[in-house]
């Protein structure tokens, strides 16, 4: 059964072009499911009945997983059995009568312009790491990059003469994203007076943002940067790198940006993913009405 899982994950990565993070999540979900089947004494996928699936989902429901995690579990298992059935590895698909849970769309946390300014003003730019952190925060807010896109940004991706950067997004898809003057200024300063002191030959691999050891920053390293300066700025919100991405999109729409243009900048394949930010925008408008209308 493990070989089938391995084959399906390879299919997800190579043919469905899913990101490594998605493939890793599916791997964890399916490994957990296989352990459940093994515990139930089921060692042939042809013997998996719908009742076994229902028992499995009932067992993980008790773990009080988030709606999105539960939905991903169902998606991973349905996708796996659909794949097996399509290739004739199993005779009957036990997931056919299962419905996907509709994910509740939780509005992401966003920052006000003042809160962003407070965070951006925190790093000590006279310090090499502070200068690096300032450049990271500026790029995150200016261009709305994902964490992985910030981590993997290379020197060859910077086209400041054209005021854009080239980004390698989900599924290894490239896109061109505008970058603002303030972000360009601080990245340029970091490249001149900060990065040379961090760079280590044979280790730095042309990555823009480096850690103390001269290698690419880790995901945890990036998270710590955002958490540190949010705390220093005195902002009592759960701030992480994706918060800056949400804020980037929301501020553009509040300023009147076209939804399709924001979709392109964020690298969303489906515009419905971008439309969540129009809900945030409407919340903003309602709050303005409540605050300033005489009968609000």
Q: In words, what does this structure look like?
A:
This protein is mainly α and 296 residues long. It contains 14 helices and 3 strands. 57% of the residues lie in helices and 4% in strands. The protein has a 3-stranded antiparallel beta sheet. It is elongated, with a radius of gyration of 23 Å. The mean pLDDT is 86.
Output the number of helix runs. Answer: 14
Q: What is the string of SSEs from the N terminus onward?
A: HHHHHHHEEEHHHHHHH
- Order of neighbouring strands in the sheet with most strands: 1-2-3
Report the end-to-end length measured between terminal Cα atoms.
61 Å
Envelope shape: elongated
Radius of gyration: 23 Å
Which whole number gives the mean pLDDT?
86
> What structural category do the secondary elements indicate?
mainly alpha
Helical residues, percent: 55-70%
Largest sheet: 3 strands, antiparallel
